[in-house]
Amino acid sequence: MSNTRNFVLRDEEGNEHGVFTGKQPRQAALKAANRGDGTKPKPDIIRLRERGTKKVHVFKAWKELVAAPKNRPAWMPEKISKPFVKKEKIEKIE
Asked: What pTM was computed for the model?
């Protein structure tokens, strides 16, 4: 079975909006980073709370334009946006 977990995107005030799924928090963070507009010099901060727990995973996230793979389909552009994340910490909600 696939053990996918649900992670809810939180802002600084604690408001929750958007659900991202993945087997690991990093996988969900990559999906969230692809929607953001952070850059490497100025990354976005992504806070993901795992549903059913009081853990909040905090990531720095950005995306860069990179060359598409050599075996890309005809519809894919030559440059694609690739997300990057770096885990900062895990916070506990009281």
From this structure: 0.84
